[in-house]
Amino acid sequence: MSDVVLKDLSGPVVLLGAGKMGGAMLEGWLKLGLPPHLAVVIDPHLPDSVALALKARGVAVNPPAHVVAAPAVLLLAVKPQVAPDAVPQVAPLARPGTLVVSIMAGRTLAFLADHFPDGTPLVRAIPNTPAAIGRGVSVAVPSATVSTADRALASALLGAIGIVEWVDDEALMDAATAVSGSGPAYVFLLAEVLAEAGRAAGLPADLSARIARATVSGSGALLDASDLPAATLRQNVTSPGGTTAAALAVLMHEARGFGPLMEAAVAAATRRGKELAG
Ligand SMILES: NC(=O)C1=CN([C@@H]2O[C@H](COP(=O)(O)OP(=O)(O)OC[C@H]3O[C@@H](n4cnc5c(N)ncnc54)[C@H](O)[C@@H]3O)[C@@H](O)[C@H]2O)C=CC1
Ligand SMILES: O=C(O)[C@@H]1CCC=N1
Asked: Is the confidence metric ipTM above 0.95 for this complex?
């Protein structure tokens, strides 16, 4: 159903900020059948090469505001810190019925409501970078003004880059951001520190980096392919009295292991999300 929704839009999707996350979303939409002439990018700092490549595919890049037709969607993908300057620049493009979707960490529905006319349907969402390969996770919360059709449209846009989880309680968004929005960084860090630990244990650095990377990605693929809980997959690696058990005694230490460390990390990210609310 997503591709049908994207092909039948009433107007363009206007993307404010086509950086890492916004750019990945745009790729997903185009791949899923959004006609390029229905994509508009507004990003004054886009590298020329990226802007030219998008234009060559038929996407409008930084067109004058008066030539932008009534947008079906305004998707806000600038940094939360620049939002107070950037959002008012595109807000006048909104028409009655334009769906506004923000993927800015921390920025609340109340912040968005302050910038758009009363009644504007608003969705606050948080995607993640595996979106670049269609394997993203987005958590989304609607404003009270979002209709069933708006929600289907937001699901289509976010579903173009992975799975979508809707929540009704906006208070969950900062913690969701800390888990799935920031989460890929924790996994990539695992690949980095595992490689470094292998080097410290005597492996050549390049060999250690290769096997650590393949181990993290292979384990993710196994997790994806399997119906088993992560804990069972972990236990399947762990022979009693073996090497893994020795390592897990360190990593699962009640006070100094992964558990309390990750809890502190997610709590720090959640706090930062609240600060970014502005
Ligand atoms: N990178 C990630 O993993 C995730 C990012 N987000 C959110 O997505 C948003 C964008 O993050 P990234 O893509 O990582 O950042 P980024 O820095 O790659 O992209 C931001 C883009 O905004 C553009 N920009 C700056 N000022 C602008 C203005 N006044 N008007 C229009 N465009 C402007 C920049 O040129 C850049 O292309 C942030 O709000 C972030 O919280 C959400 C989930 C995950
Ligand atoms: O680090 C950030 O603030 C953004 C939001 C989630 C991932 N990147």
From this structure: yes
